[in-house]
Amino acid sequence: MDNNIVLNIFLTIMKICLHIFLGGINVIYNYITLERPFTGQGCGWVEHKIKVDKVQKQVNSWAGGDRKRKMCTARPVWKSVSVSKTNKSGYYQIDLGNLNDVVEINEEEMTVTVEPGMCIGRLTRILVKKGWTLPVVPEIDYLTVGGLIAGAGLESSSHNYGLFCQCVVETEILMPNGEVLTCSREQNFDLANAIPHSYGTIGFITALKFKMIRAKKYVELDYRFTNTIEDALKLINEGSSRHEFIEGIAYSKEKFLIMFGNMVDTVDPTKGRENPINRWYKKFFYLQVEEIVEKLIEKRNNNQIIEYVPLLQYYHRHSRGMFWLERYANPFFYNSQIFMWLFGCTFPFHIDILGLISRPIYDVLYQSFMIQDFVVPEEKTAKLFNEADKMLNIYPVWMCPARTSETGGCFNIPEKYLNCLYIDLGFYGYPKKNKGDKLNRKPLLRHFEKFCLKNNGYQGLYADCYMSKEEFETMFDFKSFYYKVRKERNCDEAFPTVYDKISAKARNLESDDDMNHKQC
Ligand SMILES: Cc1cc2nc3c(=O)[nH]c(=O)nc-3n(C[C@H](O)[C@H](O)[C@H](O)COP(=O)(O)OP(=O)(O)OC[C@H]3O[C@@H](n4cnc5c(N)ncnc54)[C@H](O)[C@@H]3O)c2cc1C
Questions:
Q1: Which residue puts its alpha carbon closest to atom 4 of ligand 1?
Q2: Which of 140, 398, 441 should be mutated for ligand 1, with most atoms under 8 A from CB?
Q3: Measuring from each residue's beta carbon to the nearest atom of ligand 1, which residues come in under 6 Å?
Q4: What's the rounded Cα separation, in Å, for the pair 138 and 263?
Q5: 332 pLDDT exceeds 80?
Q6: pLDDT for 164-203, tens place per residue?
């Protein structure tokens, strides 16, 4: 037998063995961290105060020391979902410890107070069981509520409710002088306004109070096929006033699937069947949707299919496949039904396990790999989509509309776009200029940063950011309130600015424009 064939068989067997080993650990770890069978449902205010006191002591000892180093959280970077990681070695690290519980569910007030380390997947499991949910639920189970507020958060209900931070009614924050403050519309409003998207550069969030809405049992999901970006955007626009959830996936320049969702309590069998999309043997959600696209293309004159998806499974529909990133970890098996029957129960891979394994090799092996979201006004979306098709050719593309408002954190929304739809286009994969050609991602990211700057758009700050400080301050509005709040609240000495924390320059990544132009 050819040596190559033997080697390939050997590598495949090794890979399956490794998958079984890690998958087994993962199943147990997921159960312990998301279901938490050995700990209670919440901690209550007394225990919460004890935890905050411990953090406060650390901040006080920084304040009483030489203050030469700036502060950041001590959370290991491999635990973070964000792609761009801060090098924390030069920082004074504050351990937020086990601030990861529900503090209080107040059904009368329709609010839930949670600690910042709580994963969104754990929170939805608790709330949905009690018949409640949050207005905006980001999909990946392992995103923490603190990271989503200090970072960014947007989801398929954002065309109704705005960004994740807009569901917060009150924030408890530990300031650099050791003071614990409550901020909301009524008190410390300047802080409440500056905390979203501040990347931990104002203070340490210790609790967040969210408004809750009533949960129902299912999401009635209405799948619509269309074959141009213009029609896809038209569908999104028309559906935005009628549906609770909207999301699109573009599989190519001619294949778009738009999903409209509404919460319902019962399945209407005359309209469609129940589909438990996250059951262990089911393919990743985007692959199930792709099969629906094919069915809709076959049907020709009927461009609609309806399914009923259990609510919790809908919320975390992209967790198992990490959108479509899992196909890069499992290139041979990700689309195999037999593989899913045998090993589907091992998904989703917990971010702690993924981070621990993939982080050391990510920067070395994946120079050309791209994970980034660009958000532009609805009227500029077709232009962005076509530009990305030409320059990146990464498919699928995630499409998610969000409504803007004046309280959208640091987003510098021009007046003419206030209360309008912006569309998030997410690109996760290898850019291919020509088929098979792999390019360095940096010049391409730079190209789209400039595109966003010219077109009133934004890029996700959770991934690489190559902008100069001036460009950064043009894209995001940190000038009108953030710098002022930092100065007035003595944050300058305690924390770097957002730019100095997350930009490529701050992380010593290459940012050479001339090189970028040559390669683009
Ligand atoms: C694969 C992938 C999928 C994603 N999917 C989604 C999605 O579905 N929806 C969505 O909205 N976004 C998504 N994102 C983006 C994501 O929202 C951001 O990366 C988010 O900030 C990550 O949260 P985290 O819990 O990992 O926080 P971290 O990355 O650990 O933290 C983010 C920032 O918040 C700060 N921070 C954290 N806790 C505190 C605290 N208690 N006090 C002060 N500062 C704090 C940290 O210092 C850091 O600067 C995705 C990103 C990736 C890479």
A1: 140
A2: 140
A3: 72-73, 75, 80-83, 96, 116, 138-140, 143-144, 146-148, 150-155, 199-200, 204-205, 322, 325, 371, 462
A4: 16
A5: no
A6: 999 999 999 999 999 999 999 999 999 999 999 999 999 9
ipTM of predicted assembly, 2 dp:
0.97
Nearest-angstrom CA–CA distance, 450 and 448: 5
Backbone angles phi, psi at 393, to 5 degrees: 55, 45
Give the closest residue (by CA) to ligand 1 atom 19. Answer: 82
**Quick check: 511 pLDDT over 50?**
no
Cis peptide before 360 (omega within 30 of 0): no
Cβ neighbours of residue 314 closer than 8 Å, sequence gap 6 or more = 218, 219, 221, 245, 261, 277
Q: Name beta bridge partners: 106.
A: 111
Specify which residues 504 forms β-bridges with: none
Cross-strand bridge partners of residue 73: 94
Domains of the chain and any CATH numbers = 44-214 (3.30.465.10), 216-318 (no CATH)
CA–centroid distance, 352 to ligand 1, in Å, is 14
- CA–CA distance, 381 with 360 (Å, rounded to integer): 35
Beta strands in 284-369 (DSSP E): 304-310
The pair phi, psi for residue 487, each rounded to 5°, is: -70, -50
Alpha-carbon distance of 117 to 143, in angstroms, equals 9
